[in-house]
Each structure stands twice: as C-alpha cells, then as structure tokens.
Amino acid sequence: MNDFSTLLALSFKAERLSARRLAARAALDQETALHTILQQVAGDIGLTALLKQRQALLDASVARIATRDAQKAAANSARIQRHDGPATAWRAWFDGSAHPNPGRCGIGALLLGPDGARIELSQAAGHGNSSEAEYRALLALLEAAVQAGARELTVYGDSQVVINDILGAEGASAPSLRALRQQACSLIAQIGTVALRWVPRHKNGAADALSQAAVRREASLTPAGST
After folding, report:
1. Domains defined for the chain, CATH in brackets
2. First-to-last CA distance in the chain?
3. pLDDT for res 176
4. Is the predicted pLDDT of residue 83 greater than 60, yes or no?
C-alpha cells in the first residue's frame, strides 16, 4: 500500500471526502478508505499508474509556479535597478491631497537643483480623488523640471499608486488615471533620466505641507455653502 501522506498529496478533495464517508460507513481507517477510493478511480490503469500521472502533473505545476515567481522577481529587480542608485543633481518631492476624498484637491511639490535652485509649488488642483491629486502634483512638478532645464531628476513621493503605475507595464493604469499617466510619461521623456522612488509619508513632509496649504488656501477663498 502506498504511503498515506502520498495518497493525501495526490488525491482530490472530492476523493478525500468520499474516503471519510467510506471510513465512517464501513468502520475503516482513513488510509485504507482513501486507498480503496483511489483504486476505484484508477480503474483499469491501476493505482500506481494513476499516482504517477498525478505526481507528474503536480511536478509540472510546481515548476510553472517556480518559473513564474522567478520571472516576477527578476522583473522587479530590474525595475528597482532602473530607478535606484545615487541621487541626481536635481531632486524633487511631490504630494497631492483631496478633502474629502473625492473632493477639493491641493498639490504640493519641492524641486531642488544645483547651485541652490529651489522651486516650491502649492496650488489648488480642481476636484478629484487622492490618486488623481497625487498625479496632478507629479505633473506640475515634472512641468517645472522641464522649464528649469533639468536633465537628470530623482523624484520622491509617498503615493505607491502613482509610482507603481508609472513604473508598471503600459496599460496597467486604472481607466481614470490613464490620461494622467500618459502626460507624466511624456514629460519624463522630455527630461531624459528620471528615477522615481517611494518614500513613507513622514519623509515627504515638505511636499505634504505645500499640498495641505493649497487646500486650506482654496477653502478660505470658497464662499460658505459653495462646493
């Protein structure tokens, strides 16, 4: 008789259920009951042949999963390497917020360049959700970088949605973000070399403060009862 652990590993859920029912009905132990059920399933080809077939299928499945995981790991490593490394001469931080969500959007960005160049952005950005606000902040930052003549830029942001979207495959965007992604990619192409790096919110304080200031400023200018 085959090892019980082997029978369990190579049996299907329905077969194990049938074995439990057989064991209860015929007062058999679980191993004998499962062996009996699998023999019935095997029929003319025999239990040994059935188990060999299933082991081959299991091995192939494990190999496919291992290959898929290795491919994902390699792609992720390559993506990180493309957007990692030492900071460039131009560095920037962006942040966007929506109050409520969706609601009034504010964007903030800080662009630092060589020789003490410093550009701060703090603007109202219409109405939308937080991801749209983050994207609009990135777009405003990239436009400022293009105007400033930046050729190598490292951009930091705390929006995993936006950064992963930019770094991901074409067409991965949510429908509402695709136009924004296309605009961002176009601006990045104009700059040349742009590294995008995620940072936790507490390391994005300057951009966050600028975006929050934009929301407060817009709210103070909106008459009571207006939307």
Report:
1. 4-82 (no CATH), 90-221 (3.30.420.10)
2. 76
3. 83
4. no
